[in-house]
Amino acid sequence: MPPEDYWDAGEHGYAEPAKEGGQSGAEIDKRAVLEALLLVSPEPLSVADLSELTGFETGAVREILNELQLFYDERGGGLVIREVGGGFCFYSTPDAAPYVSRLISSQVNPRLTRAALETIAIVAYLQPVSRGVIAEIRGVQSEGVIKTLEDRGLVYAVGRGGPPGYPNLYGTTTRFLERFGLNSLDDLPDLEGFAPDDETVEKIKRSLSWEISEEDVSAGSGKAREDPENTGEGGDSLTPGGGEVDP
After folding, report:
1. What are phi and psi of 225, to 5 degrees?
2. CB 3.0-4.6 Å disulfide test: which of 136, 168, 192, 242 passes with 157?
3. pTM score, two decimals?
4. CATH fold for domain 108-239
5. Model pLDDT for residues 136-183, shown as the tens digit of each residue
């Protein structure tokens, strides 16, 4: 729908932006320009900012912003324009805000640390798998990392390895498949393709057949060392920012 169909162009409705070299460009809708700038800006834009960006007079910018605010208030949609901190910005309406917040939270995709990647790889290939087996393979305690992966919805406790009192067994979630671009666990790369050393291969084979005994877990120092990246209960083993690490 063209802009003139839902508001009056008015005295300040159109402008002819100067091209490089001082030549005039095609007539444009000032309201459309300001509306687009507010929509794409991550921060509120002041009248002075918009005037500097567009070359429009500050008085015209202020008048158009008032008209845009009135238009979005009266149309009854999911967006409004508010003046905050000396600038203008689009916001969701109060009715829509909880759903927008839910969407943003579901799309948070922080980068996985090396410890988290190691742990989730073990769970993916050996599931259902206990924390003891994960600690044996990694050589470090991983409770904090597992807790964080649970909080992020990437792994979950699928059950116990026996009667009450036995440890929880962990598996991956549908969200894990989505994050790593897999349709199913059958799409995981062949483990043998990574060519681990013979000792690691033997551990994995024994883990898969549940042949790791209590003597094996307690061998050596008697206790797996602490993971320097294991942040404990409520700790975060996912580093925010930095973009995707999903394959």
Report:
1. -70, 160
2. 168
3. 0.42
4. Arc Repressor Mutant, subunit A (1.10.10)
5. 988 888 888 999 899 888 999 998 877 777 888 999 998 888 878 787
